[in-house]
Fold this sequence. Notes:
Oligomer: heterodimer
Number of strands of chain A: 12
Distance between the termini of chain B: 13 Å
Radius of gyration of chain B: 24 Å
Shape of chain B: elongated
Number of helices of chain A: 11
Distance between the termini of chain A: 40 Å
Order of helices and strands of chain A: EEEHEEHEHHHHHEHEHEEHHEE
Number of strands of chain B: 0
Radius of gyration of chain A: 22 Å
Order of helices and strands of chain B: HHHHHHHHHHHHH
Number of helices of chain B: 13
Strand content of chain B: under 5%
Helix content of chain A: 25-40%
Strand content of chain A: 15-25%
Amino acid sequence: MEPLVEIRNLRTSFRTEDGTVRAVDDVSFDIGRGEVVGLVGESGCGKTAVSLSILQLLPTPPAVIEGGEIRFGSRDLLKLSGEEIRRIRGNEIAMIFQEPMTSLNPVYTIGDQLMETIQLHQRLDTHAARARAIEMLKLVGIPRADEVMGEYPHRFSGGMRQRAMIAMALSCDPKLLIADEPTTALDVTIQAQILELMHELRERIGMSILFITHDLSVIAEMADRVVVMYSGKLVEQADVQTLFLSPEHPYTKGLIGSRPSIDEDDSAVPAEPGLRRRLPFIRGSVPNPLHMPGGCPFHPRCDYAMPVCGTEMPPRTELREGHDVRCWLHESPDSVARADEPEVRS
Amino acid sequence: MLTIPVVIGVSIIVFAIIRMIPGDPARAMAGVNATPEFIEQVRVRHALDQPLHVQYGRFMVNLVQGDLGRSIFSGRPVTTEIGERFPRTLLLATVALVIATIIGVSAGIVSATKRNSVFDNASMLVALVGVAAPVFWMALMLQLLFAVQLRWLPATGIGAVRHLVLPSITLGTASAALMARITRSSMLDVLRQDYITTARSKGLGERIVVYKHALKNALIPVVTVLGLQFGILLGGAVLTETVFAWPGVGRLLVDAILRRDYPIVQGTVMLLAFLFVIINLVVDIAYAFLDPRVHYRSESGE
Lengths: 346, 302
């Protein structure tokens, strides 16, 4: 079946006074119908820029979508007029954000803000819109939905506000929900509740979700398929099991290896006597987006780096159906003169 | 509820300051050729021979009863003098404030939404000049242009709406400029907030995003300035009223100070202080309408 969204060669830049920052560089991936795609990477890797590019919510200037295609049904979202994209926002594609404390307008009631979306996209009178809003609040597990309609956001806790945001986002039955770190700002227990709610709603409504996070445990729980980004580039994508069990890109391996684990034997560095086990980490830090290293942006931090890595970005290699990676290690040996196998540091 | 302490504080300061100004009201009233006996009589008649705290006590007792005393100069009750002139000042200040708000807030919104555009830069330059230009200079320039050169509007006096145009523009210019700047910066700040992205992500048009979601939030600081400005305009009409020969309380006050007419000065300043306090009270109430958080904060006893 044809995927719901096909992102092809998306390139988004920010023009700053110090130079152009390429936030999204040649990123392509699909979101299938009913599929949950996890988009992972460190802060500043371009995940949010991808999500905001889809609905063209980046402030322009400084942001510029320089090229690519975002196919949604028969349309290319990047070619739509302002009016056409507004008819999709909140209706066919909805979004929830990281900061529930600041994502709701403090001077309008929850009811106003919910009904606004509903009345904008559906031909409902005030009465019917109100009924729909209350139904949505109940759906996301907000108690006393009737009274809550007339309350202002500051009366709500973070978890409740995020529920209200979800209710708002889902009120027009979107085909795609973009969730940009929706649980990052919440307490762990609340986070679990929100994830469970999203799980449940996805089953019930059958929408696709683009779930953006830097938290791999959340990805493991939520996603069907995972897209890994590093410095604006897509480095690996695979279904969730493959990615966790046999990651192929050194960056993905590093990410998965550097999770803390309760199980002593799991992916740990042997402890020096008398010392506590140290958590493995990826050495170095994310490159300055204004001074990107040439070639693969990860090569200065990569334990397997070869000469070619510093000069050319590797192409996309499909290892098997649905699993591709952009790394010279996986290019066919004859196309690249392979450097000596480096010693493996974990 | 600081209203009462503020009014009492103002009364003490006004009472003390006017009596520090050199000059003898009894002598001023009695005239140049008055005999020392006559001057003394005048002094006793107006209780100016009493110790200061006694004078203040009498003033406050009368004030509470709504009696501000009589003008030393004209002999008429201060309340009558003020009552005659205050409506004119109120009219002038209100018209100036309305003009300033309409121009200032709209210019601020457009500047913020079209940031760094030609309009933005031009209006902020005009605003800077508007804040910086001295009122008397503005007044004279407007008179020169519209009354003397173009002969469109009368230079001075009161009567028709035509008479109101130049003084209210003069008086309102600085306020308009200030409001434009406050609205712009407040609006820019609000437009960066997450809930604005949320509003856009819902598919709302830019007009609704700006005028519904952003404006109500951006107006909160503007309302504070608006209240303060109204107080300042009422009191600050002094220069404008002088240049345009507008017989309001501003000119009454200036004349009274020059004549050492203590009761008029006290009465006028008390009135302005009282209005200032009342306006701020109204502003606080207006907050509750704009910002629901204010209402609940006071409910929880803070």
